[in-house]
From TrEMBL:
Name of the protein: Alpha-galactosidase
Organism: Lacticaseibacillus nasuensis JCM 17158
InterPro entries found in the cross-reference section: Aldolase_TIM, Alpha-glycosidase_related, GH, Glyco_hydro_36
Gene Ontology BP terms: carbohydrate catabolic process
Molecular function in Gene Ontology: alpha-galactosidase activity
Gene3D superfamilies associated with the record: Aldolase class I (3.20.20.70)
């Protein structure tokens, strides 16, 4: 039952927690802050009339753009899972309501949906905190700008992990290519092909630490190089460096395997076990666990001079129903979240002292605002062969991640795949950093030609694609038209529908990632344009001029590229 009720224009606020006070701060028309204070717990409902709303955006939505009923219940958000924001928009992509809060260091709950009894939209937020600020944005601005402004609001006083332009180049990942069946010989044989393709980073995934190739995590935790696979790991790293290739190495941070030597050492310092994976999850409420993890990573870095770490499964750090209760006499951190932030802060400080350009990759779902302090790569969660998932989740992550580089999940395809289908897999990653996981030696001649063309394209337009102003339109339809603009260049990707492209900059690139073989463009009738159209392999298919036209229809191959310049 509500303790008291407040109405602010269309919004109704029901405060459900005891001894809670709220102050309203108006920032500008349509934008306000609600500043709550309470002795230990804050719970409240916000209610609005449901007007002109067609879709919902939230950080881990994937393809779920639908409006939920309020009885679905809340989602749990933590520093290392998702982020506390939800946005509602209309069919024109205009913001109708974006709600976010700044309780970033704790576990909070956020539920949002339509109340079917009266057609209102209800948002419930609960947090075991003494203070919480909620940002409410009802301004009629583009939905992506409402989300971006939330991201900027979160970043007050937060120092993000540094990144440099070279870390936005294409990466080769070993995972889908080899899984655990990886070796020094395999990597050495990759070097000439990667150099030829201009790929300067390898991510060495799971398998380097074990002779066992049967998946699972039974052999994690010791983090010794498997000598049968890598007889001289240091020599391998040196050889890669001599060829201009950096090496990033995978670690599953929370896991200690039941077949590892360390298993007995961590007895009594586990959050829970995963019998099906033959491992357990470390309890980072113990300072000793944090010290041991950091010690292992630094020893590996100092011994082998690797260039980065892929830190996996961080979202597995959580208190389960079987986890031990907090023991003040043994544990140094009351919550898992406190321990994790200590671990990541300490590791960041130590690795950047060794190498200011050290690479750290995180993966969905630990992609929230605080995580940007500790990684310079946020990767899409595993989605093998799913181009559409890569496309959608790169756009989602770009909106949420500010200037932190966003990486695709690793790209793979069948050895007999058609060149156009290969191109579509690659093009799904246009607005992120491409992680390739098909060995060049396994590519057909035509597939390799497509890869070379794509790598040339994304190198040429890297600044526009990854750091330009990104405008993913129609989120309710999974972003069928995405713009990236920087200075006088616009790059447009079409992946569905019949949307005309306005030629508003001097140089426009149109990527046809759809099955449609024609594209409409809106021209300036006083301008003259040169149009160049190529197929997915870079072969010229036609060249033409447009003069004194308001609109034109261009014939374009599937996965083809069209460039248009004002003369």
């Amino acid at each position: 039952m509500a303790k008291y009720l407040i109405r602010v224009k269309r919004m109704k606020l029901d405060i459900l927690s005891s001894d809670t006070t709220v102050e309203t701060q108006k920032m500008e028309p349509g934008l306000k802050l609600l500043i709550f204070s309470s002795p230990g717990e804050i719970i409240f409902d916000l209610t609005w009339p449901m007007f002109d709303i067609d879709g919902q955006w939230y950080p881990l939505k994937q393809f779920d753009n639908t409006i939920h009923p309020d009885w679905v219940g809340p989602v749990s958000i933590s520093p290392h899972r998702s982020a506390p924001v939800v946005s509602y928009y209309n069919r024109q992509g205009e913001n109708r309501l974006t709600v976010a809060h700044d309780g970033l260091t704790a576990i909070t709950e956020l539920g949002a949906g339509v109340h079917e009894e009266d057609g209102t939209l209800r948002v419930r937020i609960s947090a075991k905190l003494d203070a919480l600020t909620v940002r409410i944005d009802e301004r009629p601005i583009e939905y992506q700008n409402a989300i971006r402004e939330v991201v900027n609001w979160w970043q007050r006083g937060i120092s993000n992990y540094p990144s440099v332009p070279s870390q936005r180049g294409t990466v080769f990942s070993t995972w889908y290519a080899y899984h655990q069946d990886i070796s020094q010989v395999i990597l050495e044989k990759l070097i000439p092909d990667l150099v030829e393709l201009g790929i300067h980073t390898i991510i060495l995934d799971d398998g380097w630490q074990t002779d066992d190739n049967h998946r699972g995590y039974a052999y994690t935790g010791d983090w010794d190089v498997a000598k049968s696979k890598f007889p001289d790991f240091g020599k391998l790293v040196s050889e890669l460096h001599e060829n201009g290739i950096k090496l990033v190495v995978w670690f599953s941070v929370p896991y200690v395997g039941m077949a590892s030597r360390r298993w007995q050492e961590v007895t009594g310092r586990m959050l829970y076990e995963l019998p099906e994976e033959r491992c357990g999850v470390l309890d980072i409420r113990f300072q000793s666990v944090i010290d041991e993890l950091i010690g292992q990573y630094l020893e590996f870095i100092d011994k082998y001079h690797v260039d980065g770490l892929k830190l996996d499964f961080i979202d597995a750090f959580r208190q389960a129903s079987t986890s031990p209760v907090f023991d003040r006499g043994k544990m140094q951190y009351v919550t898992v979240e406190d321990g994790l932030l200590t671990l990541l802060s300490s590791l960041k400080e130590q690795v950047l002292q060794r190498n200011p350009n050290f690479f750290i990759e995180f993966r969905q779902s630990y992609i929230g605002p605080l995580m940007r302090q500790f990684a310079n790569a946020f990767r899409v969660a595993d989605c093998p062969y799913s181009a559409q998932t890569n496309h959608v989740e790169i756009c989602d992550l770009r909106l949420l991640s500010g200037n932190t580089p966003v990486h695709s999940d690793m790209i793979m395809w069948h050895p007999d795949e058609r060149p156009e289908a290969v191109a579509l897999q690659l093009q799904a990653t246009l607005f992120g950093v491409l992680q390739l996981s098909v060995p060049p030696a396994r590519m057909t001649k035509n597939q390799r030609q497509v890869v070379q063309r794509h790598l040339s394209l994304i190198r040429k337009y890297q600044d526009v694609l990854q750091e330009g102003y990104l405008r993913p339109t129609h989120p309710e339809l999974n972003y069928p038209m995405v713009y990236a603009t920087m200075d006088d260049t616009t790059f447009v990707q079409l992946s569905g529908g019949d949307y005309p492209v306005a030629l508003n900059t001097k140089h426009v690139v149109i990527c046809n990632s759809s099955t449609t073989k024609s594209t409409r463009v809106i021209c300036n009738p006083l301008a003259e344009y040169q149009v160049t159209i190529t197929d997915c392999s870079g072969h010229l298919t036609r060249r033409m001029h447009l003069i004194n036209q308001h609109e034109a229809t261009l014939l374009q191959e599937v996965a083809g590229i069209t460039t248009i310049d004002i003369l």
